[in-house]
Amino acid sequence: xxxxxxxxxxxxxxxxxxxxxxxxxxxxxxxxxxxVPIYLLWKRFPNQSFIEYSQTILGQAGKLVGLLYVLYFLxxxxxxxxxxxxxxxxxxxxxxxxxxxxxxxxxxxxYAVLKGIEVITRFAELFAPFIFAGIIIIFLLLAKDMDLKVxxxxxxxSFFSILLGALVTALRxxxxxxxxxxxxxxxxxxAKEVRSMFLSTYSILAFFWIICVIVVLSTLGLDLPKVLQFxxxxxxxxxxxxGFIERIESIHLSMWLISGYLRVxxxxxxxxxGLSQVFGLKNYKPLVISILTILIPISLAIQTNIxxxxxxxxxxxxxxxxxxxxxxxxxxxxxxxxxxxxGDIKP
Length: 347
Fold this sequence. Notes:
By secondary structure, this protein is mostly helical. 71% of the residues lie in helices and 1% in strands.
């Protein structure tokens, strides 16, 4: 969610026109399809995280798989920190050094990680309704300026391009793997409840993504968002009602800061938990400061090569890179577990 309300990447991928909302809607079944291996692995190993049952299935080789995923999460959160700080240093505080922003954010994330997943989830429960309410408020305030004719004609390009866009959107959702790491910590244990959790999560995401798309395209048109760096933010700046309600970018900024903090804290927790599981440590907390000191230089190093990073983030590379981690490796693990009849094989 935080990426779409900052960089609006959906227009960079197929279909790249007014039918993008349909691609977002169809991303729900695509998300569910990509989550099937994760769900089936959880059914076999309900009390283990992805990294733990990788070692159960593959033995010592599973440690290499686990380490690979720790590096993947580290790379993913570092790229997010680049985009997070890029917004602040470009649109909000252009004179502020990136290093200062990272030093300000990451210790708070480290503190939340030290307190445990319960604190992070309670923080999310408290503030998620405000984030969603902020998106709805912005939508309502811009309603009078919207031109919904921009969404016609319907299905201008082939339906295949829309399906491809739905797949690309789903593959950009690396949080699918966060489910695989955190499912052992959730209180629900029934398969039906877990399926409902997957469906409701992806449906809520798609709903608010579509609202953001409607806001941007109906106010800025089809062409302008493709060249603007922060399309949603620029759309919010258009709000003006009676010369009184205007310049409310603070709503967007507060949503963005809170959701960004939650995302970094969650990935931070997954990294230290994963690393402790790879090396068989009973307590992850000694790793928190070490990962904190690693995250800052990695994030700064990524920003020194922005051209290559932007090329990596387009739909020709990033989604297919994610495909390997989100789907191919889990399918391989599931196949091996089924052949070896490992885990709980009850239907």
